[in-house]
Write a structure and sequence with these properties.
This protein is an alpha/beta fold. It folds into 3 domains: about 5-85 and about 175-180, Periplasmic binding protein-like II (D-Maltodextrin-Binding Protein, domain 2); about 90-165, D-Maltodextrin-Binding Protein, domain 2 (3-Layer(aba) Sandwich), CATH 3.40.190.10; about 200-280, Alpha-Beta Plaits. It has helices spanning about 15-20, 35-45, 65-75, 110-115, 115-120, 130-140, 155-160, 210-225, 255-270, and strands spanning about 5-10, 30-35, 50-60, 60-65, 80-85, 90, 105, 125-130, 145-150, 160-165, 175-180, 200-210, 230-235, 245-250, 270-280, 285. The radius of gyration is 20 Å and the shape is globular.
Length: about 290
Amino acid sequence: MSLAIAIQGELGSNSELAVREYFPDSTDLVIVPCRTFDELFDAVHDGRAQAAMAPVENSLAGSIHDVWRLLADRPLPVSGEIRLRIDHCLIGLPGTDLAQIRRVRSHPQALAQCQQFLHALPDVEVEAVYDTAGAVKMLGEEGGPQDAAIASAQAAMDHGMEIIAHDLSTGVNYTRFLVLGDVDMSDSAADADLSARADNKTTLVLQVGEMAAGLASIITILREQNLDLLKLETHKRAGVAWVYDVYLEFAGHVNDAGAKAAVEKMIAVADELSVIGSYPSGHDAEPRMHRRR
């Protein structure tokens, strides 16, 4: 039986590569490309896909806030996570030279992760588009020798393009993805090490009004329950005065006694609280090239 996984972007995007690494032994994966993150959530809610691979955080550019907001507003169960190493490539038409490039297209996250490289290019216009692999597709359809895209080596191979430069980002570049939806773990890389499945983490999104007092209370609650804090980040809630979203993660399962007590106490502190889910901690993965049939 096939397993349909929704991704934001086209085939050849890092989201697709994350799916391939999370389910390395599955031979019946069906990738469902979505143009936006809203469409990605729609695909699972509407039943067009059993699950989605959603990026939530990058080691260089930080959290992907659009996804965090959707996690709270349109919840889906979390089955697991994976951290994929990102190798951003500068991609052009065959025969293109770096000195010819005058326009570079890619997803805003990829452009942010490659800022230092892009700033070093003279007289180059940077254009944000909906997807990294989509930028390569556009290059093949309408690009010229002055155009380039930033995407994976997979996308370059898929569209018959040429890689001009590898590893454009500065520093260790990993993107963390969550697997959203109820999926069978038997074909996933997370299932390969059963001991890792006991190493759970819990993700929540809270809303707090009085920022300093609210955060101090949350940290105190976690300390009282001996819970290890893994992530604490605030982000302004757009359109609501002085209200902030808090992205919170701690080690353990929400059904554990200490975690359950902590969540109950945090409900009294926060204006709103959404338990995104508890799931096995993920692993680091290196993307591989995949030959299309």
